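Throughout our pipeline, every protein is held as a single compact record rather than as scattered files. Such a record has a labelled line for the sequence and another for the backbone structure tokens. The remainder of this section carries one protein's record, kept here as part of the documentation:
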Amino acid sequence: MNNMEMEKIVKSTFGGLLYEIRSEYEISQEVMAEICRISCRQYANLENGRCVPTVLNFINILKIFDVKIDDFVDKLIVNGYIIPDMDPNREMDIVNI
């Protein structure tokens, strides 16, 4: 799977998460944007999978709605995201990182 395909999965998964949260609270995109402290346009683009959030927006949104990053990563994997394999010829001692 190439990077563009993986990015598409990230966009759609994050957008789906936003939609789920918004539906659960029964609020508009405008209210969600205000809660997330981003513009309405930016929120709509995130929810519709047109873009990925900045790292800061990603962290803030997960924190605001108490979404565990592990739960989000699990959703990514369920949606087809594949964590790229490391080069098998590369030795890595995780203890010394």
The CA atoms of residues 8 and 49 lie 8 Å apart.
